[in-house]
Specification:
By secondary structure, this protein is mainly β. It is built from nine helices and 98 strands. β82 and β83 form a beta hairpin.
């Protein structure tokens, strides 16, 4: 229990004498004691700077009697002010005394601390320790927060601050963070907190002895203001208090009912007059949405000034829909204006997808989960919503992450797996069978952390001592308890705080005491009353005293219990809950979560574009959110949402309706489970302004414009204009009164009222003046009388000119024209009226101008050339042979401007009946409106020719017997509709087209997309078919072939498809007997159609040939066959591949290649099971032409594919090779040879069949003795033999591939030519020398094996020009001719060495050196001698010595050696004319191809030194 608070200086130091056995516990108590002392020490030290040496307060002087008198005099003089001063002095005295006492206490504490400091031993190293750790805080936005902690340790620890494990750098955000360290108390001050500052803050203390961390959570909340409840539906809350303003504010033009779309921006503007209008003192303005006071945010912007108040919504969402109210403080209280804002859904990304959810809110935020809830969208034509996806986004990032893998069906979802201390935003998307909706507006930021108040934290303030109002001393709860908690107790009060059909939310109270160690919870469940407890896998560590439980089986009850765990271990389980089961606590009907249908819906008129809808609430509201109202035009069967955000009340005004249409309404109730059933439809309602209450308001207004039309001395004919307002009911009669001018009494003209606006007044006295007045009457009564007319003289009209025209009216008013109509004068004069003259003037101008210079003989005139927006007045004169008569009264002003929504008359033909009609749709009508059709602006009286029908705002004039007599101008005028009218001229050409269309409709044909056609199917079947644009399921048809109807049982298959409109007949056996004419007759209701196809002669032969081919193809494909016949392609290495694809093969299927009927055997046999086979033809040339054949077969049959590579096919292959070779061709290179200069181009493959051209200076080169053209498989070359200066210049080669030419060039001129020519001369000389040097032509073997005592003869043929010298050697020693070794050289060609009676000593390595001035050759022979009786030894090359080579003495200075040329030069082939006259003797082993090194040609063979 907390101790009683007492002043610091009165607390006595507590001696602890009780011994403890646990040294650890004693250490903890000492640590707490030292912590308390350290806090006291630090708080005392904070006052040292302010404390002064103690002093005594001097005693106050006692007042003397004379002072008392003066005091009384002053008090009586100054009265109340002196009394106030006295109280202030007394307060200062008490404050001073308290300060002195505090200073004295400080000095005493300082002395005691100094004594303790002297007695304390030298500090020893100690690891850092938090004496006072960080505390969690929950603060409002834009308020500061201060995190404090006290750290001990030696050496003095260094403290670093972190937010969400990131180091806090005050310099990164200047003014945001402030880090303090005063007297061992470390602090972090966060100024003007925002939601983004929410998180886990850490203080890390480090010294040489270790590191310790203290953490705390900061949760920043955004103030939403207290919820105000409106007292009336859709109105803002009443004011709790009146704040007077010195300004008078009068609202002028204000915003009205507004419509917007999601994603758009919108501004509501109200204009006002402010008195006095002070620029720096605007009126105080408040904006409300429904009953919520709006504040500036990212979604709402407000401004006031300059006589306007504005509310801007930069990005509309359905969350913004509602009743907006502007409230302005005035001198007399407030003035207000309200109007509704409707926000409809934006166009969905997928057709049929639902609208976006709205009003996403977050609640029950803690570090384990956050509960997200929202409202469902309205649905009219979309499919039902199957669920919702919830997305989250961390504050400061832009990536949205989906929270639930499968859609959740209820409009709330607990989001788990959040980072503690992080701030999140949420949004929701709706899902139905068509797709996913657009996302909702994101929620406000919320932090995943527990809200911990300062009172409920680990540390409880029991005593507070403030020093100069800056510092607090706090006492830890465990210090008061005198124990240190390790293992916590079990949680208590485990219960279900929320139950629904998806999950159960468990809540409990944390254990008490809970200790300082971090705490988390484990949850266990048990099915029914069993005691088998199973631990739940929550996915994350539960650290809050509440958690949602998912994955529970339906219709099964569970018990739950909770275990608290810290680093010391788990606690005992809590008491189990009662049996809990997933259910909906708000429903009264099992398994139904949505509300029931609302009751009766009543709709009534409100304005011309709105209706008032009222309904009864549902019997089962089930936690109702609101209502959706839908409307539909009668007969359309299309429902349109009236509101897009649930409306809370049962009365709603539907705006945006079309005047003159008839609507029905329905209502749906909404809750967290979705939309309930629709209510019954209301009665149809015609949209028009509501009738006003009261007889005076419902009666018509007064007529006006009374004019005199004729007078015969005893009677007058007068006319007047109809009232401007009918009062909502049709005018049925007029009452006319008269009086003499000199009289004041009015008399009725007739006992029966007039039904027209022209009346002849009888029984008048000639010579008198009369005045008239008129009253109109309707069902509501008689209206007000008109103003008295001007006095009319009752004198007979005898003038020959006609009287005035009357009843001027305007129709078909457009931006630049109008139609003026009038009625003929009653008095025609001495002769009939022959025409009319019209004059007009701008409104307010006395200058009238004549519109028509020639009189028109009709009572209407089309006036054109008007200025848009200008008002005009008109008057009309009737004309006869006597001249122009009296002018009519000046008409009312009319503005030349097209009415909004005006449409013209449309002509057409009814698709069902074929009737020709003219149709007109009025922009708006009233209940009294009538459509008056006329022809040539005369009422249509012949009802046998036309018929008029009207539905809503549309009227149709149908021509019953359309003929030429019906041509002309047709017009329509709509009464009580603001002058809605139009005209249309029906021409002969237009009537002719409509008559043709009418005939086709009344005598319908089945429209065909295609005529009767045929196609050959794969089995050789022939399909005859027709495709109609549309056919019904009741269609009937028949096929007729050669005047005989064909049925489906005669080898024909006949069918049709209504969805595609195809009618078809398939002939299974198409033979010569099927030649003839095919006809299809179709009957579909009244419609008919026929289509024919002629298959005779060549056309039939083509069809029959194709059918037989397809039949054979079908038979072929029953066994192994080629799905793709032989064709070719060229690989990148220019190998030609003949390829084919196979089908319907099996393991036993064989495949063979043939060329010219000779089988081709490949190294790898073809594998038919692979589905394709290929025959490579490398180094393709003309020799590869021929007929290739691939044969495929097994026991089911055989198939053959033939490919003739010749002619065009051969050219295509060569071009394909040239295309690859040309692309790979290298640049032209120069190569010098003994014959001349060679230009060569390397490529992947070259053959002489390729179209290759050589050019010299743009002239094509032909192959000749001078210019030889050739190539190898790897290159193309051009040889310039014995080049001269004429061959200098630019050379190029072109390789043509049939489409493109691949060109490579070389410039053989200048230095390049000079060097090439020099190299050619050198190689030419070298070739000549090589041709004439000495050499062994043949005859010598490599190895000779001979028996002892035999004669050995080594003979060879030599050649050289001049004749060469011949020298023999044995083991590199020259052999001298003697009796044993005989040397001969005959005719300069035949050289021999004969060894008589060979012995073993004659074995060795022999060689012959043949040489002349151009060079020579050194050839070696190995001789092996064996004794009689021995086995013939195997010949071994080179066993005597290493490879012999003639020694190379130093070259004489006069003839240096020729350097090796830099350009490659091929070795010339010896001339074929050089032949050996003597045949080469045979040898036991074949002659060697390698030759001995050749000494320089100017050196003779050295003579070996004799032993």
């Amino acid at each position: 229990m907390p101790t009683k608070a007492m002043p610091f200086h009165q607390q006595k130091q507590k001696q602890v004498s009780q011994g403890y056995q646990s040294t650890k516990h004693v250490h903890q108590i000492q640590s707490r004691t030292s912590s308390s002392k350290s806090v006291k020490k630090e708080q005392v030290e904070t006052t040292q700077a302010m404390a002064q040496p103690a002093y005594k307060l001097p005693a106050f002087r006692e007042r003397q009697p004379e002072g008392m008198q003066e005091y009384q005099r002053m008090a009586s003089h100054f009265g109340r002010d002196l009394t106030t001063l006295q109280h202030e002095l007394h307060r200062m005295k008490v404050a001073t005394q308290e300060q002195v006492e505090n200073i004295e206490i400080t000095r005493e504490v300082r002395e005691r601390m100094s004594v303790q400091r002297r007695d304390a031993p030298t500090e020893i190293p100690k690891g850092p320790d938090f004496l006072v750790g960080l505390r969690s805080h929950t603060v409002w936005e834009k308020t500061p927060v201060k995190l404090l902690c006290t750290v001990s340790g030696y050496p003095t620890p260094i403290v670093k601050w972190y937010k969400n494990d990131a180091v806090i750098d005050p310099l990164s955000v200047p003014g945001k963070y402030k880090i303090e360290n005063k007297y061992g108390v470390h602090g972090l001050i966060i100024s003007r907190c925002s939601v983004a500052d929410s998180g886990v803050y850490s203080a890390v203390a480090i010294n040489s002895q270790g590191k310790v961390v203290s953490r705390a959570t900061v949760c920043v909340r955004r103030a939403t203001g207290p919820g105000e409840i409106s007292h009336l539906p859709g109105q803002v809350p009443l004011l709790s208090g009146i704040r007077r303003s010195k300004l008078e504010v009068f609202l002028l033009d204000s915003f009205g009912v507004t419509f917007g779309t999601e994603g758009e921006s919108l501004t509501l503007v109200a204009n006002m007059v402010v008195v006095p209008d002070l620029p720096n003192l605007p009126p105080e303005v408040m904006w409300y949405r429904d009953d919520t006071l709006l504040k500036p945010s990212r979604w709402v912007e407000m401004s006031v000034g300059g006589g306007t108040a504005k509310l801007s919504l930069p990005h509309l969402n359905k969350d913004d829909e509602g009743l907006y109210t502007l409230r302005i403080w005035t001198k007399d209280g407030t003035t207000e204006h309200s109007a509704y804002l409707f926000v409809k859904d934006a166009a969905p990304t997928v057709k049929g997808a639902p609208g976006a959810p709205m009003d996403v809110t977050v609640s029950d935020a803690n570090k384990d989960y956050i509960l997200v809830s929202w409202k469902p969208p309205n649905l009219t034509s979309e499919s039902p919503i199957t669920g919702y996806f919830v997305d989250r986004r961390k504050s400061g990032t832009s990536d949205w992450v989906q929270c639930n893998p499968t859609p959740v069906k209820v409009c709330k979802f607990p989001v788990q797996g959040l980072t503690e201390g992080a701030s999140y935003h949420f949004r929701v998307r709706a899902v139905n069978s068509a797709g996913i909706s657009l996302p909702s507006r994101m929620s406000t930021g919320v932090t995943a952390a527990d809200e911990e108040s300062d009172v409920q934290d680990i540390f409880i303030v029991t005593t507070v001592i403030k020093i100069e109002g800056k510092y607090d001393i706090v006492v830890q709860k465990e210090e008061l308890q005198g124990v240190c908690v390790t293992l916590t107790g079990p949680p208590t009060d485990v219960h279900a705080s929320e139950i629904n059909q998806t999950y159960i939310v468990l809540s409990w109270n944390p254990p008490s005491p809970r200790g300082q160690a971090a705490l988390w919870y484990l949850i266990e469940k048990s099915l029914g009353d069993s005691n088998f407890w199973q631990r739940l896998d929550t996915g994350v560590q539960v650290r809050s005293p509440r958690c949602p439980i998912f994955d529970l089986e339906d219709k099964k009850a569970y018990r739950f219990r909770v275990i608290s765990v810290n680093k010391h271990g788990p606690s005992e389980p809590s008491e189990p809950t009662a049996l809990l089961q997933k259910a909906d606590p708000y429903v009264s009907i099992p398994d139904i979560g949505v509300p029931s249908a609302p009751g009766q819906v009543l709709a009534s008129r409100n304005t011309k574009t709105s209706a008032f809808v009222h309904w009864e609430p549902p019997k089962n509201p089930n936690n109702l959110m609101g209502y959706y109202v839908d409307c539909s035009v009668v007969g359309s069967k299309i429902w349109t949402p009236c509101n897009h955000r649930p409306y809370k009340h049962t009365r709603f005004v539907v705006h945006g309706l079309t005047p003159g249409d008839t609507y029905i309404f329905r209502v749906q109730a909404v809750n967290a489970y979705g939309l309930g059933e629709e209510s019954l439809e209301s009665a149809p309602l015609f949209i028009d302004a509501a009738l006003m209450r009261g007889v005076d308001c419902a009666a018509p207004s007064a007529p006006y414009g009374i004019s005199l039309l004729s007078c015969d001395g005893s009677s007058m004919t007068v006319a007047w204009k109809r009232p401007k307002r009918t009062g909502g009911s049709r005018i049925t009669s007029y009452y006319l009164d008269k009086r003499e001018v000199e009289s004041v009494n009015w008399k009725e003209v007739s006992s029966s009222p007039a039904t027209k606006r022209v009346f002849k007044v009888e029984n008048l006295t000639a010579g008198l003046f009369y005045e008239f007045k008129v009253q109109a009457a309707n069902l509501a009564g008689v209206g007000l009388p008109s103003e008295p007319s001007r006095p009319f003289a009752c004198e007979a009209w005898t003038m020959p000119q006609p009287g005035p025209a009357y009843d001027l009216s305007f129709w078909e008013v457009r931006d630049d024209s109008l139609l003026l109509q009038w009625k003929a004068p009653v008095y025609s004069g001495a002769s009939p009226v022959t025409g009319y003259i019209v004059e007009m003037a701008q409104k307010g101008s006395p200058d009238f101008v004549v519109v028509n210079t020639e009189a028109v003989n009709r009572c209407y005139l089309k006036v054109t050339g008007l200025e848009t927006g200008t008002s005009y007045v008109f008057k009309v004169y009737a004309v006869n042979v006597s001249g122009k008569g009296k002018a009519s009264d000046v008409s009312e002003a009319v503005c030349a401007k097209t009415l909004p929504g005006t449409k013209e008359i449309v002509s057409g033909v009814d698709e069902q009946t074929g009737d020709i009609f003219l149709s007109f749709e009025a922009p708006e009508v009233s209940a009294l409106s009538e459509f008056i059709w006329s022809k040539s602006y005369k009422d249509i009286t012949d009802s046998n020719r036309v018929a008029v029908s009207t539905v809503g705002r549309c009227s149709r004039l149908t021509l019953l017997k359309p003929e030429k007599e019906d041509l002309g101008i047709y017009s329509v005028a709509v009464t009580e509709a603001g002058g809605a009218s139009a005209s249309h001229t029906l021409t002969e050409e237009e009537l002719k087209k409509m008559l043709e269309l009418s005939y086709n409709i009344r005598n319908p044909i089945v429209p065909l997309k295609t005529e009767l056609n045929y196609e050959i199917l794969e089995k050789g079947h022939v399909r005859f078919w027709v495709q109609a644009q549309k056919i019904s399921s009741a269609v009937s048809y028949r096929f007729i072939v050669n005047d005989k109807e064909v049925t489906g049982a005669e080898g024909h298959k006949i069918s049709h498809d209504v969805s595609t409109g195809i009618i078809q007949m398939t002939v299974e056996h198409f033979t010569r007997a099927n030649e003839g004419t095919y006809t299809l007759q179709i009957h579909d209701g009244k419609a008919k159609s026929q289509s024919s196809l002629v298959l005779i002669g060549d056309v039939f032969k083509v069809a029959l040939k194709e059918a037989e081919f397809q039949r054979k193809e079908h038979i072929r494909k029953q066994g192994p066959h080629f799905s793709e016949y032989l064709t070719f392609h060229v690989d990148d290495d220019c190998t030609v591949m003949l390829v084919c694809k196979l089908a319907n093969v099996k393991k036993d299927t064989t495949f063979h290649w043939f060329k010219e009927d000779e089988e081709i055997i490949l190294d790898v046999s073809p594998n038919p099971m692979s589905g394709s086979c290929a025959l490579p033809i490398p180094l393709f040339s003309r020799k590869d032409q021929g007929i290739y054949k691939a044969v495929l077969g097994d026991d089911r049959g055989k198939d053959t594919s033939v490919y003739d590579i010749s002619g065009q096919v051969f050219e295509e292959i060569i071009n394909a090779i040239a295309r690859i070779a040309g692309s790979s061709a290298s640049d032209l290179m120069m190569q010098c040879t003994p014959e001349g200069i060679r230009l060569q181009c390397y490529m992947k493959y070259y053959t002489e069949e390729m179209k290759t051209s050589w050019f010299h200076k743009e002239s094509k080169i032909a192959s000749s003795e001078k210019m030889r053209i050739g190539g190898t498989s790897e290159m193309a070359w051009m040889q310039i033999c014995e080049p001269t200066d004429r061959e200098k210049g630019h050379y190029s080669i072109e390789i043509h591939d049939g489409k493109n030419a691949h060109t490579r060039t070389f410039d053989l001129s200048g230095q390049a030519y000079t060097e090439a020519y020099a190299e050619f001369q050198r190689l030419k000389a070298a070739a000549f020398a090589e041709k004439n040097r000495g050499r062994v032509v043949g005859g010598l073997p490599d190895v000779v094996t001979i028996m002892e005592y035999k004669t050995l003869s080594l003979t060879c043929t030599v050649w050289g020009d001049p004749k060469p010298e011949v020298t023999w050697f044995k083991n590199e020693q020259e052999v001298v001719s003697d009796d044993h070794n005989q040397i001969s050289f005959e005719s300069g060609k035949f050289a021999s060495l004969t060894i008589k009676c060979v012995t073993v000593d004659d074995s060795g390595k022999y060689s012959i050196n043949v040489r002349n001035k151009y060079g020579g050759e050194f050839v070696e022979i190995t001789v092996s001698v064996y004794k009689q009786g021995e086995e013939i030894p195997e010949p071994k090359l080179g066993q005597t010595s290493r490879t012999s080579a003639a020694p190379k003495p130093a070259a004489p200075p006069s003839k240096p050696q020729t350097p090796t040329p830099s350009m490659k030069s091929p070795t010339p082939t010896p001339p074929q004319s050089v032949k050996s006259p003597t045949p080469t003797p045979k040898s036991p082993t074949p002659p060697r191809s390698t030759k001995s090194p050749t000494p320089p040609r100017f050196m003779r063979s050295p003579t070996p030194t004799k032993k």
